[in-house]
Structure formats: structure tokens, C-alpha cells
């Protein structure tokens, strides 16, 4: 089930809001969890079993880390515990008052002091959690890739007799890349003393499975919503802003991302293409992936607000960046910050000298590329960004073209990012190299190119790409624009929602790119 579908908009969402707000406060997490499992299992009910398994493992590991639960009650007195309200609250939940109905839940949370020495049992618990999640992710996402790479290598070496040639293939569960990272953050944050674990399994299952961000993010860390799971307010203003987020996101998806995606598909699937056509198709894909994913994030944030949750910003106008370093501070913020805090920093970050810093940057981006997809094209994409980040770090976090005016630097950064998108979009390495060759004007152009151009440059598609460019570099961010909902803005929001729903009823092309990741 996708957000931009009639089933979700007209049936699932109204039913969810009705049941959620009709339920007593203590029952809302159970209602939301069950509905989220229905949402996730809509495509394949077996995916729910995998999600439940990951949830159970991390829930038990969280209890093991603090020495509580049925197997560790005897250890509880040996730990230094801090009250759940102590310390700094998460940024996402600041200003959110605890509901009087939930104050009694405070006793259900305990946490280790950050400076408490960790026992071998606690270290074992976090290792079990991380290894289990990585094993699930590795098997379901990379098994087919590993077998195919192994067979290809043996063919190149002339050892065809050792090929596996397996007939069966593993189906990739939706959102596994997102919820495994999110679930891992729980045990890691608890182990580090950054958050208090939940004693209630329903509360934890609600955190992991919450449908707004389950299958395509943002990756919500437990420390960001721990206080909100304990208590949050559901106000009319918060709900109204959520509706605004949802409406704007749906409009971005239907009115901008989908038409740009049609241009990109025509270009990348073409047998013959001119250099200008290839650049046009690439720019269209750059807009498609941005508006597709940022629209999903907008809708996820909006749905969270409608349920009383405040999720962090996930995009900050990334195509306005003047360097690759700045781009990664603005693009998919929840992933880049997750990789920084849970991978880059533990590897040593920039604390072990320049060379180690460059190696760490490259390694993190290579793994980040592989996280996006099980193909060598994604590894190359990650390696390209890692190399550029290392070069900029060597220059003091500035771009190679930092002496140029900012508009030129923004254009150059957008060009570099777009060239990287070729590897992201292409089906394989050979197709990516052929597309780059076409962009350089090194490919023969067949007469059929004129027919293709007639479709690619039709006024509706070309006009949408132009509008996407104007909004990208001249329009306000959804996050900022929805802070103050004036009457004129409310009218625009309603109009955008109505037009998006009307167009949705006529569109047959409605993919969500990040569902495959």
C-alpha cells in the first residue's frame, strides 16, 4: 500500500484516524500497531513475520541491556538507573507536554547512566541485536546479489563448473533497510545510555512498525520519539499542520515526481538518444527522485503529526547546496546522520588523522551506497560521493570550486550529484556507462530519436520539469511553509490536495522509487 493511492487516502487513513482517536489513550499504541501491521502486510502478509521477529529480538535485547525482564530480574539491583525524565529530552519532542493520562507510565522506563560500566552480558545483548538485524538485511537484500557476483567472477576466471546457478531467488521485503536501522538504533541508544528502554512490548512494537515511516523512512531513532511514546499532545494545530504536510507531499508526488519520472524512463529506456536528450532525461530523474522521496517524507511527517508525533526534518533543499559536503547535510538527513553517528564515529571519524578520515568517509559512503541497493552501480555511486567528500575534507570541507560565486557552485554541485544519479538509475554498470557516453555525445543517434523527442518534449512533461526546477531553487520548504497556516495558505493547500487527487484518478504511472530500497 502506498500513500498516493485511493485505498490509502479514502479507506485506510480515515479508518486509522477513527479507530485511533476513538480508542482510550492506553489503547492507542495497540490500535496503531495492529493497523501498521495491516498496512505492511498488504503486499505480502509473510513480511509481517519478519518484522515481528526483528521487533521481538530487539525488545528482549533492550531489556537485557538494563538487566530487566523475566531472565534478568536478579540483575536489576546491580545497575545504576536514572529516572526516565532525567537528562535532556529529544529534540523532536521538546515542547510536547506529557498527557496527564500517561504520567503513570513513567515507572515503566529505566535507563543506564551514560558512564556506567558495561558488563559482558550487556555487550552481548547489543551485539545480538546488531548482528541479527544485519543478518536479516544481508540475507534478504544481498543474497541474490552475492550469488550473481560469485557466478560472474567464476565465469571470468574460467571456472564455470564451480558456479552455483541457483534457480530460486529471495524476495526483498518492503522497507527492511529502514526498519532494521531504526530498530538497531533502539538497542544502541539504550546501550549508550542515550535513551530509556520500554518495558511495554506494545509501545516498542508501535515504535518499530509505525506505518507513516515504516517502509521508506525517515529513519526515526528511538531517542527522538522515546518521550513521545511515553506521552504527547494531540492538538488541532498539530493535526492541521499534519494535513498540510500530507497535502503538499501528495501534490509533490503526483504533480511533479510522476511526470518527471515519465521523462526519465523515456530517456533511460531509449535505444537511441541525443546528448541533449540524455541530459534532459537525467535532470528529470534528479527531480523525480528528490520529489518522490521528499514527498514521501513530507507525507510521513504529516501523518505523524496527525497522530500526535513529531518526526524530524528529512530534507533541507539539498539541490541548493554549494558542495557535496553541504549536500549530505541536506539530503536524506535521517540516513546521513544515522551513518555518521552509528558508523562513521565508531570507525574513528576524524579523530585518527587525515588519512584515516578519508578512508572512513569512503568506507561509510560505499556502505551507504550498498544500503540503497544490491548492485555494483550503487557501490560506484557511494564511492563517487565518498571520494568527493574526502577531497572536500582535504580542502577544509569546501568544494573544489569554492572560489566561484555561490549560484555557480550550486549549479556545479547539482551537476556532480546528477552525474552520480546515472549509476543510481541505470539497471547495470554497462547501461550506466552507455548513458554517460551518450551524455558526452559519443553515441550514434538513430532516426527514431525524433519520435522519442516528440514525446519527451511534449508541453505537459517539459512544463512539469520547468516547474520542478522553479520550485527546487525558488520555492519554500514544506517544513517552513507549514509553520504558519494562514487563510490564503489553507486555500492553496486544499487546492493542491484536490488537484492531486483528481490527477491521481487519471494517472496509471505512480511508482515510489524508495520502496525498492
Task: Report what the structure shows.
Helices cover 62% and strands 1% of the residues. It is an all-alpha fold and 517 residues long. The chain folds into 2 domains: 6-232, no CATH class; 238-322 and 445-516, no CATH class. The protein has a two-stranded antiparallel ribbon. α9 packs across α14 and α11 (333-344) crosses α12 (354-372). The longest helix is centred in the first third of the chain and has 37 residues, at 120-156.
- Biggest sheet character: 2 strands, antiparallel
Mean pLDDT: 85
Helical segment tally? 19
Instruction: Assign the structural class, choosing from mainly alpha, mainly beta, alpha/beta, alpha+beta, or little secondary structure.
Output: mainly alpha
Q: How many beta-strand runs?
A: 2
Shape: globular
Helical content (DSSP H or I, runs of 4+):
55-70%
- Rg from C-alpha positions? 24 Å
Order of helices and strands: HHHEEHHHHHHHHHHHHHHHH
Distance from N terminus to C terminus (CA atoms, Å) equals 15 Å
Strand content: under 5%
Number of domains: 2
Low-confidence stretches: 69-115
- Strand order of the biggest β-sheet: 1-2
What is the topological layout?
Blueprint: H1 6-22, H2 28-40, H3 46-65, E1 81-82, E2 111-112, H4 120-156, H5 176-192, H6 201-209, H7 222-230, H8 236-268, H9 275-306, H10 324-330, H11 333-344, H12 354-372, H13 376-394, H14 406-425, H15 429-439, H16 449-456, H17 459-474, H18 478-481, H19 487-504
Antiparallel strand pairs: 1-2
